[in-house]
Design goal:
The complex is a heterodimer. Chain A is of the alpha/beta class. Chain A has two domains: 195 residues, 3-Layer(aba) Sandwich (Pyruvate-ferredoxin Oxidoreductase, domain 3); 79 residues, Alpha-Beta Plaits, CATH 3.30.70.20. Chain A contains nine helices and ten strands. In chain A, strands 2-3-1-4-5-6 form a six-stranded mixed sheet, sandwiched between helices. In chain A, strands 7-10 form a two-stranded antiparallel sheet. In chain A, strand 8 and strand 9 form a beta hairpin. The radius of gyration of chain A is 22 Å and the shape is globular. Chain B is of the alpha/beta class. In chain B, helix 1 crosses helix 6 and helix 2 runs parallel beside helix 4. The chains are: A alpha/beta, B alpha/beta. At the A-B interface, helix 7 and helix 8 of A face helix 1 and helix 8 of B.
Chain lengths: 311, 309
């Protein structure tokens, strides 16, 4: 059975990628499961989708814990624990990263036993949430690396899953997917199909059994106010608003009022300050600031500058 | 509860500069509904209990996280006003029995999306108004079932593409006039608001704080994923909804409807429509002059009728 996980950000098309791959597998005669997994997170937030495909009935359910192939659409997610990219990877896993950097670099960074392949990133886009065609590229790469899906089935699956889009967009997706498919079809490193586990092989995890507690103990009432601040929605951001205090008129109330998340505070000196732990990067402040004192820069560039500035 | 309040929101500078609603909520970046809620909450203060019907904002409080500083109750989609009745009654009994002091009294605030407000929650809302329940109701209207992928609702405007109205002409129906339906019950207060006009919103919240009984707000809530536009345009699109006359800002008090912000020179509706992917089919591949003219005519008719009253 093939177990394949796609990692990306909300908006990059990972759900569509899993659907395209799932449909292509189905056309090739496989039993298929495909499902996206996102909790309460939204555009820009780390999400994943997964596909299981086998020649026989699939009894496994739920998320894939031991993937045979992990496809990463956005390499900024790899080092983010919340994204769970490396979860369950072992020497059998093939990790495919859409990146400008080399497999060797990623190998050193991750210190993983998994085999690493690079899906050469296209030109950098400013806003990572807008990576063009990335869903189709990821689906095509995964299809090629399994070696059991033909070009024809990939095309048919793309046409089916993208049918709601206009012909030009579908053609754009198809063309770019086939380039990736052909490129990956020559790769020597392939996905190793994992064995289907049977229920009788199930090994109980080394859990610690806890006695069943009454609700007031297991689900304690929380009286603390505004605990949501513990959730760092700043990780969703693909673009970062930056205040140029030379231009800021200190009116404060405009950006701070319009920010839906209340992530712009007014400092004691009357100037606004952006809370990057929580700013989701909607950029309403950039659009609304009367003296245009807030500009947006790509998050990966901003982080690069921060890292460069740190000795 | 002392319900004294003086309107003091005249300029942007009067808006609260500290915010009560916690950051870190799972609402989408650029959410027009969250923008309204945070302004409402800043003005109402933390002596509030929110009663939340199923919808996008259900996700605000996912244990153990909450952006609120007080209570929050989750109800089924159709029954938030019934939940509010229970909370109100419980608080009133505690006050009566002196188990709560007068300054511990709370304002009960229902928040629901348009799916609940315009559709399946209408009967519970109607009942609450019949009983003259003392509560505030905020409907964040993003014109579709946004939390599940923007299927059409009774609030979806004509011609909008939704995930269940994908044809070349979009949604064939027309947006339900919830303001009039609510006003027909003669509650204490009904108003339309939008976060892109924070002063108008703040003044209305100030006003309803001095009242008792059902106080009803419908906020148009621009929705980046549901309406298909770049999140940074949320305020711009909201303002255009008012300037084009698509979203009239008005209030109902004592049997009278009054417009609180009448656009002097209404902009053409296409200024509002063309920024949103859900109306793109009206402009590309060919301009649908008839379709745009029909939407414009309905807006013109509304304002022509409003002028005669």
């Amino acid at each position: 059975m093939f177990r394949i996980r796609f990692h990306g950000r909300g908006g990059q098309g990972m759900k569509t990628a899993s659907r395209i791959l799932g449909s292509a597998f189905f056309m090739a005669g496989y039993e298929v499961q495909d499902a996206p997994r996102y909790g309460a997170e939204r555009r820009g937030a780390p999400i994943f989708a997964y596909v299981r495909a086998a020649r026989s009935t699939i009894n496994e359910r739920g998320i894939i814990n031991h993937p045979d192939l992990v496809v990463v659409a956005d390499d900024t997610l790899v080092g983010m624990p919340a994204a769970g990219v490396t979860q369950g990877m072992d020497e059998n896993t093939l990790l495919l990263i859409n990146s400008h950097e080399s497999a060797q670099t990623w190998g050193q960074r991750l210190n993983t036993r998994a085999r690493i392949l690079i899906l050469a990133a296209q030109e950098e886009v400013e806003d990572r949430a807008e990576l063009p065609y990335i869903g189709s590229r990821c689906a095509a790469a995964a299809a090629a690396l399994t070696r059991v899906i033909s070009r024809e089935f990939l095309i048919a699956a793309l046409n089916e899953e993208l049918a709601h889009l206009n012909d030009e967009v579908i053609k754009g997706n198809r063309d770019i997917a086939l380039v990736v498919f052909d490129e990956m079809a020559t790769q020597a490193d392939l996905v190793n199909e994992g064995v289907q586990a049977s229920a009788s092989d199930y090994v109980r995890p080394k859990w610690i059994d806890l006695p069943f507690e009454r609700a007031e103990i297991s689900n304690i009432a929380i009286h603390a106010a505004a605990t949501s601040v513990k959730v760092r929605t700043g990780l969703w951001r693909t673009m970062r608003p930056v205040i140029n205090y030379d231009k800021c008129s200190g009116c404060s109330w405009i950006c701070s009022t319009y920010c839906p998340d209340g992530a712009i505070n007014v400092r004691d000196d009357g100037y606004p300050e952006i809370d990057y732990e929580h700013c989701k990067g909607c950029l309403i402040c950039v659009a609304q600031c009367p003296p245009h004192a807030i500009e947006s820069i790509a998050e990966q560039v901003a982080r690069g500058q921060e890292n460069g500035a740190t000795p | 509860m002392s319900k004294q309040s003086t309107v003091h929101f005249h300029r942007m500078k009067d808006m609260p500069s500290t915010h009560l609603l916690g950051t870190g909520t799972p609402m989408c970046a650029g959410c027009g509904g969250l923008e309204t809620l945070h302004t409402l909450y800043d003005i109402l203060g933390d002596k509030t209990v929110f009663v939340n019907a199923a919808g996008c904002m259900t996700l605000l409080s996912v244990y153990p996280f909450t952006p609120f500083r007080g209570g929050w109750l989750y109800t089924a989609m159709a029954s938030a006003p019934a939940g509010a009745q229970g909370v109100r009654d419980a608080v009133d009994i505690l006050l009566q029995k002196k188990k709560l002091s007068a300054d511990e009294n709370v304002e009960v605030v229902v928040i629901t999306g348009d799916g609940a407000a315009y559709g399946m929650g209408m009967s519970a809302t109607s009942g609450a108004m019949d009983r003259n329940l003392d509560f505030i109701y905020l409907c964040y209207d993003n014109e579709g079932y946004g939390n599940t992928g923007q299927q059409y609702s009774a609030a979806t405007p004509h011609a909008a593409i939704t995930s269940t109205s994908k044809g070349s002409h979009g949604y064939p129906g027309y947006k339900k006039d919830l303001f009039s339906i609510w006003a027909a019950h003669s509650p204490a207060y009904v108003a339309t608001v939008i976060a892109a006009e924070p002063l108008d919103l703040a003044k209305k919240v100030e006003k309803l704080q001095s009242m008792t009984g059902p106080r009803m707000l419908i906020s148009l809530a621009p929705c980046p994923p549901g309406w298909d536009y770049d999140a940074q345009l949320s305020v711009e699109i909201g303002r255009l909804a008012v300037q084009t006359g698509v979203w009239p800002l008005k209030e109902f008090i004592d049997g009278e409807v009054r417009h609180t912000k009448v656009p002097k020179q209404r902009k053409p509706v296409e200024d509002y429509l063309q920024l949103q992917g859900r109306f793109r089919h009206l402009f590309a591949p060919r301009r649908d002059a008839t379709g745009i003219a029909e939407i414009q005519a309905r807006v013109d008719d509304y304002w022509a009728l409003a002028a005669t009253k």
